[in-house]
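User: Second chain of the day. Same drill as before.
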Amino acid sequence: MKLELSEEIAKILEYAKIEAMRTGSWQAGTGHLVLALLRHGDNDACRVLASAGVDPAALKLHLDAQLFRKEAIPYAEEERIGFSRDAENTVSLAFLEASMAGQREVRAVHLLLSAVRSPQNRCTSFLEQRGVSYARLSEEMRAAGLLQPEIQEEKEEKPAERLLDVIELIGRENKIFS
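Assistant: Same format as last time:
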């Protein structure tokens, strides 16, 4: 099974660096990934958040309050912006989410699910206060048909074999963080 990044995730990763610069951080973290997901806006993850009763503008304000530093980083410094270890882990978990769903591409819904699972995520308390958890988001996504398997397995794979495939893929795809 070969997993690929969707175009929307590639754009969201670009936006994450911009969000890091806007908030004055030299590294994009999981909070910046969520801000980038909200900035992208036209994706299933944002629609699921809205259907779960989360106001994207309120979530953005909450994250901005958590992440803002005194000065933004100039766009001329964009090449120096990197991804933090927690952001890398969040993206890696998004690959796992896509694999577990039997899907070919890592999309915004997978990134949202992995961000909600991240211990470094600054939006978890905001979501929990509104009754939105990983389980609820996952249920909403399944009900909307967003996590339907696209890959028909020819042979029965053991979960450990699938996980090893995902780990190998993440190693090959890690160039997204360079």
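DSSP finds nine helices and four strands in the chain.

User: Great, on to the next one.
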